[in-house]
Automatic annotation (TrEMBL):
It comes from Dictyobacter formicarum. InterPro entries: DUF6483. This is Bacterial transcriptional activator domain-containing protein. The lineage of its organism: Bacteria, Bacillati, Chloroflexota, Ktedonobacteria, Ktedonobacterales.
């Protein structure tokens, strides 16, 4: 029952946020980027009690901690911030400021991936579309380890095992650690228990699982 309540609540919250975002998109279509940024700051203050300046002064990890006083992210505040940071990134992109847009996009993606992991969100939710749009926008950038770790978990959660494996080995190449290596072993252990059909749906196979396990050995 609690999961269904959470699902319905997140759906209603997303609809409310969508209404506010439509106003922002309207401003952006008319190239009123500064007005959009001002409106975003007002919306952040209204719905979260925080300003854009303060939110963006925090590291991703510290921001998540501040939104998780009981160890779990506050859904309301987290989703408002993730959604509005995404729009703020789009406004800066319109202004030709790629540094500021990248910073907002990564912070938004970080929060959104954490929320999708923690909450029971239906597979038809537009939040997945938002996450995929952010991932696409960041395709040409080298993402920091803490974002890639959440992407690894996200792709496995969605059954995209081939993509998850790509992220895993990117992490091991760029940011090798015993923790990531252990997560890799646990990942393949979970995949070994999947049926051939499940793996095929995730662009994977039992043969590739075994190959992945063997590849992990060179990182030991």
């Amino acid at each position: 029952m609690k999961k269904m309540i959470n699902k319905d609540y997140i759906l209603r919250l997303a609809e409310q946020i969508g209404y506010e975002l439509s106003i922002l998109i309207g401003l952006r279509k008319r190239n009123r980027y500064q007005d959009e940024l001002l409106t975003i700051d007002n919306l952040l203050l209204k719905y979260t009690g925080l300003t854009s300046r303060f939110i963006n002064s925090l590291s991703d990890e510290l921001l998540l901690q501040s939104l998780s006083p009981l160890g779990k992210m506050n859904v309301d505040t987290g989703l408002w911030i993730a959604s509005l940071l995404k729009e703020e990134g789009a406004a800066y992109e319109g202004l030709g400021n790629s540094n500021e847009s990248y910073y907002r996009y990564t912070k938004s993606l970080y929060l959104l991936l954490e929320l999708l992991h923690q909450e029971h969100v239906g597979t038809d939710s537009t939040l997945y579309d938002d996450a995929d749009e952010l991932i696409q926008k960041l395709t040409d950038y080298a993402l920091p380890a803490h974002i890639q770790q959440k992407l690894f978990r996200y792709y496995e959660q969605r059954g995209m095992y081939g993509r998850a494996e790509n992220i895993l080995f990117d992490l091991l190449e760029q940011y090798p650690s015993a923790k990531v290596l252990q997560e890799g072993h646990e990942f393949y252990q979970r995949l070994q228990k999947k049926s051939s059909i499940d793996l095929q749906l995730g662009d994977f196979s039992h043969e590739e699982v075994q190959e992945g396990i063997e590849q992990l050995q060179r990182f030991n």
